Amino acid sequence: MLPLTARIDSHFLGLPMLWRCLIIIAFLAVMAAIAWRKRMLTGSGTAAAAALGFIVFYIGGVSGISVFLFFFLTASISSRVTPVPVDVVRKGGRRDWMQVIANGVPAAATLVLYRSQRWDPIFLAAFTAALAEAEADTFASSFGLMSDKPPRSIMTGTIVPPGISGGVTLLGSMAGLAGAFLVALLGSSTFMLGFSGFAVAMISGFAGCIFDSVLGAVIQVQYRAPDGRLTEKSEIDGKKLERVRGIPFIDNDAVNLLSGLFSASLALLFMQIA
């Protein structure tokens, strides 16, 4: 039996292009207004999310936008409800355009390839894997801050400050695996990818989360705040901070983008040999 979204798509994707675009624009306008009012996105983040949402909805239909929105909503909620320790310096809860692009472009790109490559379903597995990675990373970062045990560097095993990229905890890792599982399960059932598609998306998504931590520990830029804490911000209160490690242009958004592309590519490789 076809999933509900697939049955809706059988009618939606058959509509004239003008009607499809009007429906998509109206739907995204409502979603953007809600995200703005709930302070999930900044103004630039709202515009970026609407642009990516249009690509996902137009090519992937109701099935694609359902998985995309599931990631966005659950990731936003997890970032907002988990407590942030007072000694952690990180970006705010509202996603700006760079954060939206970093998390959404890998998934949107796989759908563009899906259409250009004659609707090959392996790209739907890559789409799901890219969102599974983004979900896993968000869950790991958010719930990892609740761990009773301090995080340790994924590369050296030494204790690092909470909230610093490259630091991992058992709780955060389990949360990341759960996030990858949820998106992979939804995506594989929505797109009817079967067990192999589910396994590929989950494994690739979680592998991307680990890759994110490795990049965070090795090449992501870190700065020293005036009080001595490490932070990902390059300046505080208009004052430039001292860079202590990493490549200047490789920030958290760049790492997220690279990790999403890594997961999508890994899923394509696995689907070729599955």
List the SSEs and their pairings:
Blueprint: H1 4-12, H2 17-37, H3 43-81, H4 97-116, H5 122-144, E1 152-153, E2 167-168, H6 170-190, H7 194-218, E3 222-224, E4 230-231, E5 235-236, E6 239-240, E7 242-245, H8 252-273
Antiparallel strand pairs: 1-2, 3-4, 3-7, 5-6
Radius of gyration: 19 Å
Tally of DSSP β-strands: 7
Structural category is mainly alpha
Oligomeric state, counting identical vs distinct chains: single chain
Commentary on this structure:
This protein is mainly alpha-helical. α3 packs across α6, α5 packs across α8 and α7 runs antiparallel to α8. It is globular and about 60 Å long. It starts with a helix and ends with a helix. About 3% of the residues have low confidence.
Keywords:
274 residues; 66% helix; single chain; mainly alpha
Short description:
The chain has one domain.
